[in-house]
Amino acid sequence: MNSLEEQRKSEGLTQEELSNAAEVSRKSINAIENGIYVPSTVLALKIANTLKCKVEDLFKLP
Asked: Which residues pair with 59 in a beta bridge?
C-alpha cells in the first residue's frame, strides 16, 4: 500500500520528472504506484527526498 501517486501529483511532478530525480525508469515509478513493485530502501529514500516527505508518508505496511 502506498500513496506515491498522490504525493507525486501534490508536488506537481510527472512520473518522468520523478523518475529522473530518483534515477530510475518511469516504468519503475509506474510499477511502484500500481503496487506491482516494492522499491529498495535506497530508492524509497530517494523518492521521499525528492517529494520532501518521509518514507513512512509514502509506504505503509498492509
From this structure: 2
Is residue 16 assigned to a domain? yes
Q: What is the DSSP letter of 2?
A: B
Each residue's pLDDT tens digit in the chain (62 positions)? 899 999 999 999 999 999 999 999 999 999 999 999 999 999 999 999 999 999 999 999 87
CATH number of the domain residue 14 falls in? 1.10.260.40
If one counts the domains in the chain, the total is 1
How many CB atoms are closer than 10 A to CB 62? Answer: 4
The pTM score is 0.91
Helices (H), the chain: 4-10, 15-22, 26-33, 41-50, 55-58
